[in-house]
Structures are given as C-alpha cells and as structure tokens.
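Database export, one record per block. Field names are fixed; values are copied verbatim from the stored entry.
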Amino acid sequence: MIHHPARTLDAGDGQKLPPEFALQVPGDYIEVLGTAVPGAIKDAGVDPADIVGIGIDATSATVFFTDADGNALCERDEFKNNPHAYIKLWKHHGAQDQADRLVKAAQDRNEEWLPRYGGVLSSELLLPKALEVFEKAPEVYEETEYIVNLLDWVTWKLTGVRAYSAGDSGYKRMYQDGEYPSKDYLESVAPGFGDVFEEKMAGPILPLGAKVGGLTDEMAELTGLKAGTAVAAGNIDAHVVVAGANAVRPGQLTAILGTSSCYVINGEDFKEVPGTFGIVDGGAVDGYWGFEGGQTAVGDIFGWFTDNCVPAEYAQKAARRGISLHDFLVAKAADQEVGEHGLVALDWHNGNRSILADARLSGLMIGQTLTTTPEDQYRALLEATAFGARVIIENFEKHGVEVEEIVAAGGLLKNAFYMQLMSDITRRPISVSEAEQTGALGSAVFAAVAAGIYEDVFKAADAMSNVRKQAYTPDEDRAAKYDALYEIYLELHDQFGRNENSPMYRLKDIKAKAFESSK
C-alpha cells in the first residue's frame, strides 16, 4: 500500500502556491519502495524466493505528467520551478473551475457517461487536473508523453510495462463501456484538448487481478525481491480493502475509515445513483458493478481540531495520563447524553466528495455558546462525519443499491466510541476487519490471483481475510436521539451545499482575492 509520503511541496523554488494546491515529488515513491519493501521482508522473516506475487494499491487520481520513460517532468531543470510539472496529489483541488466546465459541457451534450459519476465530477479526478495543466501550463502539457495515475505509474516502474488498471480507469479516468469521453466533447470544453486520451493515455487496460508483468532486474535489486515475480494490476487504496475485508458480494458496504473515508459497495446490476464518486463495471471486483462514495476528510478533521483548537492544558493532562489527545477528548465526551453539547457540524473542511462533489464547500459548526467546551466540539465533529456517511448510505438505498451491513477497516477502528457512534447514527451493524493492514491484505489477495494461487478474488478473499461479524450493533435509544440531530444536519447540508450563492463560495472567493493581493 502506497500513500503519499509526508513531505509535500510549496514548489521547486519555494514559491507560495495558490490555495487548494497539493503537490508531491516522484523520488519519494521510489525511496519508499527501496526502503519499506526490504524492511517488511526483514521484519516478516520470510524468504524473498517464497514471494510469488506483488499487489499494488495507492492513492488514486494522484496524477503524473511524464516523459516516454515514465520520468515526471518536474525532474527536468526547465520545469523544476513549475508547480504544474509536479505530481498533483488526490487532494489537489486546483482544478475546480475545470471540473465545473467539464460537467456543464457534459450536461449540455447529454453525455451518456456522466450519470456513471452521479452527474458530477470532482476536481480530484484525473481529467480536470489534465485540463488544468493544458490551460495553465501548456509548456508542460506539450512536453508530456504520458499522463498516468500513481498506481499505474508504480506498476510501470516495477515491470517496465505501461498498462492501465480497469478499476482506476473507470473511476478516475472516465473509461466506461470500453471507451473514453469523445474527442468532440473534449474539444467543446477546450479546443485542442480533444486528443488527450489518444495522445497522452493510450495503452492496454487490464482487469483487477490480472498480471501486468514480471519484476525487472533493476527493481528486484531495489526491493530485495526476485526478478520475474508477478505484479498485479494496480488498485485504488480504498477499493482494495473490499477484498481484504471480504466484502466482495452485493449488500456489503466497505467503509474505509481514516484521514478521509471511502464507501464502496458491489451490485449485480447498474443503477443510476446521483452524487456517487463513480459507478464502474468491475471497478472493485471483476464481475460486479462497483459503486463508490466518500468523504474528503474525516480523521484529518479530528487531527486539525487537536492541532489547532485545544488548550495546552488538555495536551498536558493527556500526556500525564499517557494517552493521546484524541483519546483524552473522547473520554471527556463519551459520557454525554446524545445532543447534550447542543451542537451540529458540517464535515466539509476539505470540501464534499459525496454526494455534492464540491471542493468549494467548507466546515461549519452551529450551537456554540460561552459554555461550549473542546470535548463538545470534538464530539460534534465525530458525529458530523457519521452523519455524512449516513447521507451517502441513504443516497445509495434511495436509488436501488441495498446496504445490508457495513464492513469497516482503517485507522479509526481503534476508536471504539467512534465505531459505536457510527453504528448508532447509520442504524447499521458494523463488522470489522481484524487484519492489521486490511488494504495491504487486499493487495495480497489480488497478487495471489495474478500469481495463479487462487482462481478468482472471491476464493482468495474467503481464504485470506479475517473479519469479526457484527462487532457493533445500533442502540435504538441512542439512534432515535441522533435522528433529531441528523435532521438539523440535513437542513444545513441542503442550505449551504445546494445553494448556488452559498456563503461558503463567497468566502472562498474573498480568500482567493486576498491571496492574489498578498503576492
């Protein structure tokens, strides 16, 4: 599993970046492969000769602009100070204008693929980012031989074979029913952009579990693995958890709960679900339709709060007790009655991914008084993220995708209070993966299939996963009390999120103008 390393950029020369930018350098990923893989082999005490398959999952829509050999253009001297030559991380939101225009043109033309993305496109996706570079840095775009997402770039580097994963292609590159958006459509958005897929992204598309190729000698030396080891098609970091948690069958909603959260569910048939992040045939498991929703910030919101909004005395008391500040706040808030804090928050501190797909939205909390405490606010933020998950679940069910249970994985599983809160608010039983790294296990499931150890992902997941069924079940009394808060959440959700003249938009505009004036 490869997430972006901690180091991000202002720019090559330290220039101040515009709001909503999030960039990365490619060398960090190679360093991770050369450090983490040998370290993992050593810690596990296994013989590299016994490793038969390699599975890759990574943050998707983390976009590279490369030369013919896969080298990112930021590595060239002439582009080292050009922000648009760097990797645009998944959470780069600089292409919101491009995303809006892509949606508007698709709506005007009645493009058949748009409903597969809930009728909206997030600025996090590859296509808006590619258009951003085309328009704002044509010199970078002109020199780009290939545009690839991180997970395909890694398998390219490992094998020397450039191939695109079917799951990522469907969710992040608008590949539906065997084709990309048409040249005519793309030209209607920006003249000259029509050939982006044909010229910058041509290549084979492989189903999940397929073998891309064998590990090259160079990468074998770097990683400590044997040359020729089978490398599976890359997978999205959240989606791969579906296999690791053995939630590969319809009705099971995989909830990947971490810094951001992703919700993936399989279905036998296509259903048009507005506001989804993607609906893809074979998107999470080959053979089923994969439906995805998500939240751009969950754990990140809790981290922001503890970093910026908690008195020093709280941190000191937590340290004296030998617990984290998060655990300290939970302990102080856990005994409250539902609604006792008098607060409701919106969980949009990094925009809204589903179901509004709008990076311009921002966080909000109402009900604060002179008696409001940090633990009150912290609990309200926990509840807000669960309310956001409930909106996504209810949107699935409203449009015919049944959610029978939640199967959860991710870092937030360690917070039992949060998990029970999630069960109460969503009114769903929650099973939990007991693997320490469910995403990595999911990658291993696909690696085993690519290496021929198992016939398909269903047999591999049954054999390799470890799930505790119904670890949390909803408490009816608390659930009913949360319903009253959820009604207020929905009012705020629609008032601020479905308002063409939302105050949140106006604040973002004021912020952007202030940034320009400060240059």
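Remark 1: The longest strand covers residues 261-267.
Remark 2: The mean pLDDT is 94.
End of record.
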